[in-house]
Amino acid sequence: MSSVNAHLEAAEQSPREGARYVHSASHSPQAGTWAGGTAEPKLQTPRVVRLSAPTVAITAQVASVFTGHFRSLNRFPSRRVVQRRCEVIVTAYNELNAHGYDIHEVSTFGLRHARALLEVWKKKRLSRNTIYCRWSALRTWSNALGKAAMLGRLEEYWPEFKGSDATKQTYHLLTQEQLDQRSAFLRQQPDKTCYLVDRLTRELQMTRELAFEIQLEAVEAVIHGESFLRVGVGGRRKLFPDMGKHAELIQELHQFMVERHRKTLAWTGRDLDGAITKYAARMTYVTKRLFPPQKGVRHESPVQHHLQRRQQPLG
């Protein structure tokens, strides 16, 4: 059993256990000699000091934060999912410590740390897809720390991430007819999550993140007469108006979420990044199955598909 897995078990048993503290008494420096006399060591008032790492390990803190975060969302992903997420974040803290950031409390993570990690990854010449996935993990971690609005999109800090036109031309974009065919195929499947997210992103011009965050109570509000759909929380909250034009889609969305007992559109047991990863993989598989690419031509990658959706204006 890995150390991360062990800490997850401890966090599940006592998720609110914080850092340990002890009382210690410190003495003044060695006594000096003044005017022929010797000063006695003065015992100072006991003070509270935080036990240093590794007593309160970064790994244990990360596991505790993630466990509490998922519980607050009323989501209970598998231990494997949480363990994989913890390992990514612990690796990021280790990289920061290796580059001179003496971090003992995970809650001190800020934008300067995220920027530093981005520079480290670029210097290591990691692939763009790897950097994108790691940045996405940092955004999820920021949410878990209660700093949801701290990190923006990767291209805001790395404009070159958008890629050159030459790279984009190697991908084949589906025609409107092909998009409709794919949507019809997805609609016939027992799990209509991908079908609904695809329609929401194309018809309401919302991002996939927001589509997965749609809450059942917000959909019911539209069913009961509200003309707009509320999506997201905090600084990412968006209002999508003119829901009367999308009544059929809203009805399908409501029926599916009720049947599957979902409070949000995302799959039960998956966080936002996990849902996006599963969605991208499923859409890529279905697209290749329905429309096999010609030799030397690839369909749009999940990362480029993701960026294209996020660059579209919101309604």
Give helix % range.
40-55%
Report strand order across the widest sheet.
Answer: 1-4
Task: Note the overall shape.
Answer: globular
Q: Which sheet architecture does the biggest sheet show?
A: 2 strands, antiparallel
Oligomer: single chain
- CATH fold topology of the largest domain: hpI Integrase, Chain A
Radius of gyration (Å): 25 Å
In sequence order, what are the helices and strands, one letter per element?
HEEEEHHHHHHEHHHHEEHHEH
Q: Total number of β-strand segments?
A: 8
**Helical stretch tally:** 14
> Which structural class is indicated by helix and strand composition?
mainly alpha
Distance between the termini: 48 Å
Beta-strand content bin = 5-15%
Instruction: Examine the secondary-structure arrangement and name the CATH architecture of the largest domain.
Output: Orthogonal Bundle
Number of domains: 2
Describe this structure in words.
The strands form 4 sheets. The protein has a two-stranded antiparallel sheet with strand order 1-4. A two-stranded antiparallel ribbon has the order 2-3. Strands 5-8 form a two-stranded parallel ribbon. Helix 1 packs across helix 2 (58-72) and helix 8 runs antiparallel to helix 9. The radius of gyration is 25 Å and the shape is globular. The two termini are 48 Å apart. The chain folds into 2 domains: 3-17 and 50-162, no CATH class; 171-311, hpI Integrase, Chain A. It is mostly helical. The chain has 14 helices and 8 strands.
